Amino acid sequence: MKIAIIGAGSLGLLFASRFIIHSDENIYLITKTEEQKRLIQKEKLYLQEIDGTNYSLNVKVYSQFDHGQTVDWIFLTVKQTNIAGIETTIKKWSDKHTKVICFQNGMGHFEYLKQKISNPVYLAVTTEGALRKAGNHIRHTGKGEIWLGRLEEQTDGSIEDLLSLLDQAGFRAFYSEKIKEKIWHKLVINAVINPLTALFEVKNGELIEDPYLKTLSNQLLSEIIRVLRKAEVPIDENIANAIEQVCIQTKDNESSMLQDLRRGQMTEIDSILKPIIDLGIRNHLTTTLLESIRLMVHAKENQLAKRKW
Fold first, then answer.
1. pLDDT per residue over 239-281, tens digit each?
2. Looking at the predicted structure, is the pLDDT value of residue 100 above 60?
3. What's the pTM?
4. Start-end of H helices in the chain
């Protein structure tokens, strides 16, 4: 099996390193920049596991500007903000039989890709935790699950081989016939945890340990639930408990949105909050808190960008 991993952020580096360690498959890592490619070529890929075990790994690494070859699966692990134009890289590494798995937060990437490529597209939701310490250094911070599914045509038998490979690499991976519900579930969790930890520059656990942040989290969740129920979007009745459990299990982790701000990068705030805000607009509901938080995150992005100059 040949797998191309497009996107060398935290999740992409985690997949690449785990596959290299635990399988004999052909794994290709595609970076956004030539600089990161040269770093990995020169200093190898470095993985620190949860138990403290360290690995230094050789990896077949390319940049998005290089010519590719046909693979069986593409793991698309770029951020939602980098989806536009990614079809150019996908086409370098695929033919009509290549399947694409999207690991983006938020909504909108599926509709975009279906307009740009003819490949079968799978959607994925994961609760794996990883922190990119450098362009070639990844730390595995928390074990979770991976759920794969399709919104349109039924899957074929090849998904079983991929699930087996993921299991072999130490991931708990499953196929879901209700992937859209799982995407909404993950979106709600992200919509509460990501923006608040980013705005207040705190680790996930602070959202339940600080009484003011906990109250704010509950108010934000209440507004989200009101919108989703009005729009008849299926939502887990225990979603509040699910968010609390994520905060407990990842209490020492920094959310991806906070990491983006620390690196001076644009966040995925619109991909996470706008789908909910837009649902509210279509159902004649006000989403004052959601819109205020969205604007505050954008304001913080702008302020940090000014400081860089």
1. 999 999 999 988 888 898 998 999 888 999 999 999 999 999 9
2. yes
3. 0.89
4. 10-22, 34-43, 87-92, 109-116, 158-168, 179-200, 206-209, 211-230, 239-249, 256-262, 269-282, 288-308
Copy the structure tokens of residue 207. Answer: 């959202």
Q: Which residues contact 114 (CB under 8 A, 6 or more apart)?
A: 121
Give the residue extent of every domain in the chain. Answer: 2-177, 181-308
Structure tokens at 208: 């339940």
Query: In terms of Cα–Cα distance, which of 237, 200, 236 is closest to 216?
Result: 200
Burial class of 71 by CB neighbour count within 10 A (0 to 12, 13 to 18, 19+): buried
Alpha carbon distance 184, 53 (integer Å): 34
- As beta bridge partners, residue 147 has 125, 174
Domain 181-308, CATH 1.10.1040.10 — does that match?
yes
- Find, among 93, 103, 59, the residue nearest to 73 by Cα: 93
203: phi then psi, degrees, rounded to nearest 5:
-75, 165
3-state secondary structure of 223: helix
What is 2-177's CATH topology?
Rossmann fold (3.40.50)
Please state, in angstroms and as integers, the Cα–Cα distance from residue 289 to each residue in 214, 221, 233, 266, following that order: 15, 10, 20, 21
Cβ-count burial of 181 within 10 angstroms (0-12 exposed, 13-18 middle, 19+ buried)? middle
- CA 139 – CA 23 distance, rounded (Å): 20
- Distance between CA 250 and CA 203 in Å, rounded? 8
Q: Give bridge partners of residue 123 from the DSSP assignment.
A: 102, 149
Residue 147 DSSP label: E
Which residues touch 159 (CB under 8 Å, ≥6 apart)?
A: 122, 148, 175
Distance CA 92, CA 115 (A): 17
